[in-house]
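EI: anyone free to look at a 202-residue chain?
SC: sure, send it
EI:
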Amino acid sequence: MTKFWIACAALVACLGVVTPSRAQVVFSDNFDSENGGVGVLNYTGFAAWTVSNGSVDLAGNGFFDFFPGNGLYLDLDGTTGDAGVITSTPIALAPTSYLLEFDLGTISSGNTMTVSLGAAYSEVFSEASAGTSPTFNKITRTINVPSLSALPLVFDHQGGDNNGLFIDNVRISRVPEPTTVLLAAIGIVGVISRRHFANNSA
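SC: here you go
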């Protein structure tokens, strides 16, 4: 067996035993610990968020529980007739790729919200993207952060009919990168294969 094929076999072995680094969660909130686990209308006492406009309702656990079995979650269009804007505490982010995940649900139509992470990401969502009671739909987006930053995550709901889009299980995690060993193995095979094909073509 030539060195080229030995190197290829070694790379395959590496692929079988070396897994990517585990995702590093940099922000996570399922709202279950808010208000002692009890739902309430027009909630403002968040640990990691600020209600910067309008109002939001803390629902679930038997309180206006449109998505039972999910603990507490947020109705972003609170009961004041003025939809809410919630802004997280700034999240420290390195210049790399991140995975934004959250559960999105609805019980009505005609609602939209803008989700943003500083200047790195902004997208408008409507009930077309949401699951309907009693099931949430999981939203997943990859976000590339170009430079070292501390960015707030914002959910900005538009409208004011008291029944808006619901969110739960918000999480931002760093996208796993290949391990150093795997990258080294790929580099070695690249060098050997170049020599192999150069020698065979001579």
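EI: Residues 19-178 form a domain with the Jelly Rolls fold (CATH 2.60.120.200).
SC: 👍
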